[in-house]
Amino acid sequence: MEDLLIVTTGGTIDKVYFDAKSDYQVGEPQIGKILDDLGVAFRFHVIPLLRKDSLFINDDDRVLMRATIAAQNERCVLVTHGTDSMVETAKVLAEIKDKTIVLTGALNPARFEGSDAEFNIGCAVGAVQSLPPGVYIAMNGRIWDPEKVRKNVEANRFEAN
């Protein structure tokens, strides 16, 4: 695989909790450390673009993401993103042609034992290397078309819409 571009936007994957009342803030991106710890055999470049809960990502943020990704040379792009508005962002990024873009995140912070973060990142890395140009979501062990998936908040998973 050529170099992988990773754009981080925040979300649960990077959250840090401070107390029993679940006060949190979005911390430093975790994906670079995760990939380094796993000893991956490819080069990657991380752009820490945003540090937001995805509920607070707005249209201007999505325009910034699209412009940032479009301006980079890498054709394989992984975006870490909060799960609540991941589908909306994927639809905006679909306007970028000639790149394979995979969005992923976590339902539990990467810093927590038992988090789905590493699994989702691994799934996304495999997907971004093997799929044709387009935009995809990698969550819950599946690769989704953003036009055909939704987050089921009650079940806390992604499913076909």
From TrEMBL:
PANTHER family: 60 KDA LYSOPHOSPHOLIPASE, L-ASPARAGINASE
Catalytic machinery residues: T12
Binding site for substrate: S54, T83, D84
InterPro entries attached to this UniProt entry: Asp/glu_Ase-like_sf (IPR036152), Asparaginase/glutaminase-like (IPR006034), L-asparaginase_N (IPR027474), L-asparaginase_N_sf (IPR037152)
Classification via SUPFAM superfamilies: Glutaminase/Asparaginase
Chain ranges of the L-asparaginase N-terminal domain: 4-152
Protein name (record): Asparaginase
UniProt feature coiled coil, ranges: none
Organism superkingdom: Bacteria
Gene3D superfamilies named in the record: L-asparaginase, N-terminal domain (3.40.50.1170)
GO molecular function: asparaginase activity
Pfam (any one): Asparaginase
